[in-house]
Amino acid sequence: MPNADSLLRSHAAERRRLHVQAEVWEPAGRALLDLLPAPPAARAVDVGCGAAGWLPLLDEWVGDGGRVIGSDVDDGMLAAAGVFVDQRGFERVDLAHDDLFASRLPAAGFDLVHARFQLSALGRTSEQMRAYRRLVKPGGVIVLEDPDPSTWTFEPSAPAAGRLIEAIVAGFAARGGAFDAGLRGAELLASVGITGKVRRTVLALPPEHPYLRLPLQFAQSLRPELIELLGEAALAELIAGVNDELASPRRVGRTFTLVQSYGRAPA
Ligand SMILES: C[S@@+](CC[C@H](N)C(=O)[O-])C[C@H]1O[C@@H](n2cnc3c(N)ncnc32)[C@H](O)[C@@H]1O
After folding, report:
1. Does 99 sit in the ligand 1 pocket, CB within 6 Å?
2. Residue 119 pLDDT level (bands cut at 50, 70, 90)
3. What confidence score (pLDDT) does residue 6 get?
4. Would you say residue 185 lies in a domain?
């Protein structure tokens, strides 16, 4: 049975969503990296980088003499990431086809291991944590970024969008993911012997911001699950309702909370 992530993969709409997402969360990523100075000739990996992920931030973080690997198991995502890396001229970034559950990346090879929306999408938390722990050098940092959906709301309130968000969270769970994985970040770092710190970011989205439409983009990517949960007719009605709500030029929103959990492996 495919898990939530396999259903999110490969679609052009999903790749576009990942680009918008990378831009939206870039300031939060930069703010965290400002607290974590890179060693000389730093090595960093963005596990499951998708179409963009943290590649721009890590290219900057490693600086001259450093290297970044963006790894993903999906060739469509890697192709999109390759175009992005070329367009932006990131000369320190290499892309690698790599399955994190059978990784061929070097053990203890990285000063920084980043994984965003991987625990929430895949839900194989113990295996994932072991994989990230294997990659990090002694004294290196693991950064996990996952959502807590509790803040994901609209103003004026948008009841149809609220119902769609509930269905999206249930759709992730039905396929083995956990949309609220951000809530467990520190506990998961502790499970691999790392004392974690946590930062939380919620963004206010102004009228007509493209990220306001995130529930509709998920509805497209997770359509099979949502049909299974709601039925096709009810899903179509719900989506029409959300489209009406989001058409209002006065509607603003708040994002889900981005929970950044990070900590250093013992030296
Ligand atoms: C929800 S997307 C997140 C992408 C990116 N981290 C970001 O924040 O924009 C999940 C990504 O994990 C990748 N992925 C799924 N299973 C994987 C695996 N076993 N090994 C490596 N990457 C995987 C998918 O192809 C997809 O690009």
Report:
1. yes
2. very high
3. 47
4. yes
Q: Is the CB of 101 under 6 A from ligand 1?
A: yes
- Name the strands in the sheet holding 252-254, side by side, starting at the edge strand that comes first in the sequence: 153-155, 252-254, 204-205
The tally of domains found in the chain comes to 1
The Cα-based distances of 28 to 70, 118, 262 in angstroms read: 19, 17, 13
* Confidence band of 242 (pLDDT split at 50, 70, 90): very high
- Residue 20 belongs to a domain: yes
Quote the domain boundaries for residue 72. 4-149+176-204+258-264
Task: Specify the CATH number for the domain of residue 23.
Answer: 3.40.50.150
Average pLDDT value over all residues in the chain: 94
Write the residue with the smallest CA distance to atom 26 of ligand 1: 50
Residue 247 domain-assigned (yes or no):
no
Q: What is the reported pTM?
A: 0.94
Over its C-alpha atoms, the chain yields an Rg (Å, rounded) of 18
Which tens digit of pLDDT belongs to each residue from 172-218? 999 899 999 999 999 999 999 999 999 999 999 999 999 999 999 99
32 lines ligand 1 (CB under 6 A): no
Question: Does residue 106 lie within any of the structural domains?
Answer: yes
Ligand 1 pocket, 41 CB below 6 A? no
- Phi/psi at 35 (nearest 5 deg)? -85, -5
